[in-house]
Give the backbone structure.
Amino acid sequence: MERVLLAAPRGYCAGVDRAVDIVERALLIHGAPVYVRKQIVHNIHVVRDLERKGAVFVEEESEVPEGATVVLSAHGVAPEVYQNSASRHLRVIDATCPLVTKVHLEARRFAGHGSTILLIGHQGHEEVIGTSGEAPDHIRLVGDVEEARAVDVPDPENVSYLSQTTLSVDETNEIIAVLRRRFPHIQGPPRDDICYATQNRQDAVKDVARRADVVLVIGSDNSSNSNRLVEVSRALGTPAYLIDDETEVDPSWFDGARTVGVTSGASAPEWLVDRVVGWLRERGATDVEEVRVVEEHM
């Protein structure tokens, strides 16, 4: 191993940065403990750091003591969470990413027109649960191309689609193409639901994967966008591995490799990248180059 290619953009997106900042500000203003429903973002290092500062993570708002402060995660929640929180007199601070809120508003709009909404996303993901809760009688989940080919709707003339913000851009476009062929009158959102940061990070890892022998993606197992980065690299034929930090790297991955690509998911802080690059330098990497495909200003 001689060379490291650092994908850019990588790491924190604006929504994650905002959500983490909200928890830290809540701790400063209200003092510990501040409760957080679900992981504020899907990264175990970020969660542990906030726990050390006084955040208490819970699965449901029902676990929060009456009258306490609760922060809702960046992934968004269903309307019933707000209702349950109000009944417990909780002080609610909403850290939902604005791009997720956009999808929620689109779901309400389509449902208001009586449309069957085909939600492209992964079963059980927090963002999908939250969006589905906006219009549970109208939404049907579509997880892949096969499901897109099979999904049935009551009125093919009144169909719409939305998508989870952290999906693979290429795979989502394939699913949308199938839906458009099946339902020529299908309506989509005014702008793509897939987050600009998700798209930028996938474009960057494609560029790096074409020039690297192996790619490391820094992110936690439950991070959808990080898993997609691994898939994007592998789809180009470049082996890729998801790691939380340098302690999870297997040196055998680099057998015969001269160039290692490194990127990080939208919920992984830059100091984890620094640690991984330091680990690679200690093992022979002398040249570290950043490969920037787009400037991110949002």
